[in-house]
Amino acid sequence: MTIAITGATGQLGRLTVEKLKPKLPAEQIVALVRSPEKAADLGVPARAFDYDQPQTLAAALAGIDTLLLISSSEIGKREAQHAAVIEAARQAGVGRIVYTSLLHADTSTLGLAGEHLFTEKAIAASGLPYTFLRNGWYTENYAAGVQGAVAHGALIGASGEGRIAAASRADYADAAVAVLTGTGHDNATYELAGDTAFTLADLAAEISRQTGRDIPFHNLAPAEYGAALLGAGVPAHFAELLAAMDVEIAKDVLFDDSHTLSKLTGHPTISLADAVKALIG
């Protein structure tokens, strides 16, 4: 069995490769990256794989049994990039595609959902066996917010009392490895999220507990939150995106209590206390 991972030098990709290595011979793990020289430290074969050069992709997938397609980081370009990868996988005779999608992609009101749902439909239409890993939020998404809260004495956002069932990247990588190396996952869709949800007020309370300081959560109007992000140096388009996402997070779009993630991995997801400890550093 040969498993290939796109974006293998990215944060989730690296974790997945490292967690696969104890389970498979290194030669059966292939890192697919734009610059193979940057993957030398992974200790597995690396192949050039550039989403924006679709004519080269099928050759790079030769001999691959299972492809882990980690969603592209280029929001707005994902549909074209993912479609190119899926067609290349079909041409190369890849046996299965595992795709990292978004929690409740078919019903989510997050602006990110459309590209993920497009990709799921394209994979299903390809005729290849698939598994959709609908990943929820990463606890690491709050690294800047937590560090900013410690520095300035308050956590800010616009998500109100929205519940966030986040888990660590390591938790999601463990789920990917379980599916990549296990059986019985063909044409399955898994909603993956943390075992225990929290609000940003809960997050602020845990930061306060660990620092011994009173660090409240200030729930701002979306425009005010976007302006605050802009003032902190966040690029305008990204600040707008983050503020818009918080509006939807307030509606519980990141909540899931199925515990599917911990069932797949066989261990609890990261606790809020451990997540905050890691983020404070």
Automatic annotation (TrEMBL):
Its EC number is 1.6.5.2. It comes from Sphingomonas kyeonggiensis. InterPro entries: NAD(P)-bd_dom, NAD(P)-bd_dom_sf, NmrA-type_oxidoreductase. This is NAD(P)H dehydrogenase (Quinone). CDD domains: TMR_SDR_a (cd05269). It holds the Pfam family NAD_binding_10. GO terms for molecular function: NAD(P)H dehydrogenase (quinone) activity. Residues 7-181 form the NAD(P)-binding domain. Keywords: Oxidoreductase. The keyword Oxidoreductase applies.
